[in-house]
């Protein structure tokens, strides 16, 4: 278990922190920011019509110019409560502005635990409800508390925050907000220094990684939220699944990873804060990757595994275009010659790709399985199911299959509530 320090002194200082500085320190290094590896070559960024793609669930529409009360995104701010989004923190130019909240709740939003809030602060109100704050960081294990929401662990026993036990699966790790002395102690693999001269486990943007607290399965990158022995709901790993390249995987898009073989998307990409997370495949989803419907999958088959989670089926016969492979002989040839090639180049994973003589690129609007087959370099989800080629990039909140699909220079294709959407990551 992560080493926990008793520091009521640090708790007192944290309560007095300036709200804006607190949010910046907690999230500047913790969030999944700009991906260090560009999967595809840079292309012209002409945004896709937002009306065609639409904003994602629970996200802030970056195209909104105003709200009923508060500042719009990109506007200079002092406090998070100044902003419609509920988050005032550093933007990519190191200026405090109102920012999006990918996968967390901004100040004043209703909450049930601190880890739901971008600032790791859920405060009980006089009316008996709780709302995300910005001036009081959650109390770490062994510190004083009044209610469960006061604690990073969401467990207050006899006036003291109780540490979480080992998660139902995977090694013991510290959840977001707990004290740490190094990245290995944290579920997020990010240990941040804060203004009270202590270090805390960071909350990563978008879906919750394995070991973190969750309110529902949709909160988790694995789409599986399971109570531990003490009753705390934690994000847990899916059962291992053997892909068509004969290698087993369990980690889903958004999960922390060490190498691509751990990821069912076969893409483990280093983020600028030094932590690597499984990234989506560019195009259709390979076998063992999570899915919502048949058309999400290269195999066109989305089935539930032993844990009840829907995952793309691994074909039992030849492999269609886009499926992960290890040899040319595995790939279907009913449409002509096909090869098992590295795609996208640079990620080292191999996928089946049609290689017929004189093959031209696929125009916008045509069905696709791989972004590299599209003239416009984007293979994006279609509103009617499956994927279509496009030359226009995707606005904030639109559905995507890779970071390169997104218009924003600091946006990524993030998994939130099972959807993969373009969102600017928190800085």
Task: Reconstruct the topology from this structure.
Layout: H1 8-15, H2 19-28, H3 50-53, E1 88-90, E2 96-98, E3 122-124, E4 130-132, E5 156-157, E6 160-161, E7 191-193, E8 199-201, E9 225-227, E10 233-235, E11 241-242, E12 248-249, E13 268-270, E14 276-278, E15 302-304, E16 310-312, E17 338-342, E18 350-354, E19 378-381, E20 387-390, E21 411-416, E22 419-424
Antiparallel strand pairs: 1-2, 3-4, 5-6, 7-8, 9-10, 11-12, 13-14, 15-16, 17-18, 19-20, 21-22
In brief, what are we looking at here?
5% of the residues lie in helices and 17% in strands.
What does this structure look like?
It is a single chain. 5% of the residues lie in helices and 17% in strands. With 427 residues, it is mainly β. The strands form 11 sheets. It has a two-stranded antiparallel ribbon. It starts with 7 loop residues before the first helix and ends with a strand.
Helix and strand content put the structural class at mainly beta
Number of E-state strands: 22
Q: What's the oligomerization state?
A: single chain
- Average pLDDT reading: 82
Largest sheet: 2 strands, antiparallel
Radius of gyration: 22 Å
Distance between the termini: 29 Å
Unreliable residue stretches: 1-65
Helical content, roughly?
A: under 10%
From the spread of the alpha carbons, the general shape counts as: globular
**Helix count, DSSP H or I runs of 4 or more residues:** 3
Order of helices and strands: HHHEEEEEEEEEEEEEEEEEEEEEE
Strand content: 15-25%
Write out the strand line-up for the largest beta sheet, numbering strands in chain order: 1-2
